[in-house]
Amino acid sequence: MDQVRVSTDEHVQHCPACGRDQRFEQPPCEDGHGADCPERACVACGHAVFVGLVPAPVPVTATAVVPAGTNARTAA
């Protein structure tokens, strides 16, 4: 088993998997957030949760699919 170093930033909150309050630690951040990483893991079961504000989703713009060989202006 590999040892993984975790942050000393620990706090207690309700773990949905355990069904009770547990200690949560910040695991190593693979996304490059460093100390600002919003992910925490339950020390009892490993269930991951996000803390703080969740970033807003990026809006998706719709694009029309135009069959090959047609003009986009006349296909509509």
What does this structure look like?
The protein is mainly beta and 76 residues long. The chain has a domain at 1-53. It has one helix at residues 72-75; strands spanning 10-15, 20-25, 39-42, 48-50. It is elongated. The termini are far apart.
Taken as a percent bin, the fraction of beta residues is: 25-35%
Radius of gyration: 22 Å
Mean of pLDDT: 79
User: What structural class is derived from the secondary structure elements?
Assistant: mainly beta
Relative helix content:
under 10%
SSE order, as H and E? Answer: EEEEH
Number of strands: 4
Strand order within the widest sheet?
1-2-3-4
General form: elongated
Number of helices: 1
Low-pLDDT runs of 5+ residues are: none
Main sheet specs: 4 strands, antiparallel
End-to-end gap? 59 Å
Quick tags:
76 residues; mainly beta; four-stranded antiparallel sheet; 4 strands
Explain the layout of strands and helices.
Elements: E1 10-15, E2 20-25, E3 39-42, E4 48-50, H1 72-75
Antiparallel strand pairs: 1-2, 2-3, 3-4
In brief:
The chain is mainly β. Helix content is 5%, strand content 25%.
